[in-house]
Amino acid sequence: MIARARTISVVAIILGGTIAIIASTQTWLEVTLRVGATTSLPVPGAAAFPLLAPLSLAALALGLALSIVGRVLRYVFGVIAAAIGVGLLIGSGRIGIEQPLDAVAAAVTEATGLSGASAIADLVASLAVTAWPFAAAAAGVLVLVGGLLTVLTAHRWRAGGRRYRRDAAVTDAPSGSRPYDAIDSWDDLSHGQDPTDR
User: Fold this and answer.
1) Which has fewest Cβ within 10 Å: 26, 145, 146, 164?
2) pTM above 0.70, yes or no
3) List of the chain residues with pLDDT < 70
């Protein structure tokens, strides 16, 4: 069960980060302007929610690192992942539900050259939302669940990255009275020692 909890935590965080990074490149809002435009103006997720891509990449990095870090860092990464999940959920959910003008301000300014909250409010005739903000919010839930599960179960996870650590109990000489042989040389190599130094 504990091995499964670790797998679920890591997969949830990585999957959430992947969905969110994909969502950042997709159209979140379609803006119809009052004058001078015959087609709607698409606003991608990265423009509507500028923190989306950095939070998504951070979630991906945390998910990958969770498989090799020690116990203390598991707790730290779990808390950070939960915070990232909350940020993704609130930021994306706000855009999907409220469709605020500040989410399209940069795109409207780039298309028209006009800036300022009142000028943009006068230019925008309507906003239509796509499913991508809600997909990013769901990704935030995945990252949040993965982070919380990490914090709750990290103390029972097996130690990761053992193969990269040198055992402090390794001695320079083979144990017992038998002669030094090829197997001992391989053991020395496994422990990061050069068998030709003997």
Assistant:
1) 164
2) yes
3) 1-3, 36-38, 159-180, 182, 195, 198
